[in-house]
Design goal:
Distance between the termini: 41 Å
Order of helices and strands: HHHHHEEEEEEHHHHHHHHH
Radius of gyration: 22 Å
Helix content: 55-70%
Low-confidence stretches: 170-174
Structural class: mainly alpha
Largest sheet: 2 strands, antiparallel
Mean pLDDT: 88
Shape: globular
Strand content: under 5%
Number of strands: 6
Length: 408
Amino acid sequence: MLYYLFEYLESEYQLAGAGLFQYITFRAAIAFIFSLLISTIYGKKIINFLRKKQVGETVRALGLDGQEQKAGTPTMGGVIIILATLIPVFLFAKLDNIYIIILIITTIWMGAIGFLDDYIKIFKKDKEGLKGRFKVLGQVGLGLIVGSLLFFNDEVTIKEELPQHVVQIAEDGSRQVFGNEHKSSKTTVPFFKNNELDYSKSLSWLGEDYEDYAWLIFIPIVIFIITAVSNGANLTDGIDGLAAGSSVIIVATLGVFAWISGNIIFADYLDVMYIPNSGEMVIYISAFAGALIGFLWYNTFPAQVFMGDTGSLTIGGIIAVLAIATRKELLIPILAGIFLAENLSVILQVGYFKYTKKKFGEGRRIFKMSPLHHHYQKLGYHESKIVTRFWIVGILLAVLSIVTLKLR
């Protein structure tokens, strides 16, 4: 909103300083500061409200050290993250930008699913919460919406075959960018020299107009990624500060990708895919990162609040959409390696248990407990040490992801 106000003031009254709002870096910095302040200052008020309403965590007896002390800790703290993200976005982002619209839809949609799940657990006293099939149905629904918007919306394009001097100054003083801008189902493949993959190529057998049917491949991929990453974030949220801290690292890295992909000079210099209008996502990412860091103020050990599914499902959904929108979804196994490890630990544990029970009549386990962070708790590691080491691994994976910009 403020972006449009200052744009008007600059054009009509040449107000000094109003032009700063044209710069993504300035608005991103302001969004980060606002978000951080909202999540830390008003986060405390929300925590006190949740405590007053007795919105406390019900802890299952898993035999883990320090588990009993967590009972009654306010949950549904994901509301703090959502509000601290959306308020700066509404103030400083271009709200008609298709990528911002998609991210707002994702935040509200996944937040609603998580909120409903937490509500059922807390107020309906049902420890299972929202039935798994309804969660998946909600994730599939979001995937259909996001996939359709990214594939069919005319504002979602890439620009290729750029000449050496891609930016020229027109007679009216405006900057003009030249190149072959068009719709495309291409994405980035890490570590390869010609690092682009066109989903539509797998349908070339359909004939000359095969590109029109690329949505048959693209939308299911979007659904799968959103479902997998949101569930991964949900599983990671098991000990204090793990999900929020790991997510900050992932989101900050995606911010680098979004800024480079949305800046034609750096995209051309680094020889990466230029995605027009995608730079606006940096404002959203900055607000989201600020919200996560502010939430960590209260979520680090010993946690004063838990994010609940309201936060974890929302975080996973946003990360998935950011990766898809910046065409870096094939980097998710590396960048979001913590989420992947948590997911795989559960899949392997359940699969192996069922297999051995069927074969030997007795279920056996690979890990002492899943998800993976509970395995290390069972080994006797303090949760603060587990979280810190997971963060370190996350940073290493983030650096490796950024290196793929030139390592091909």
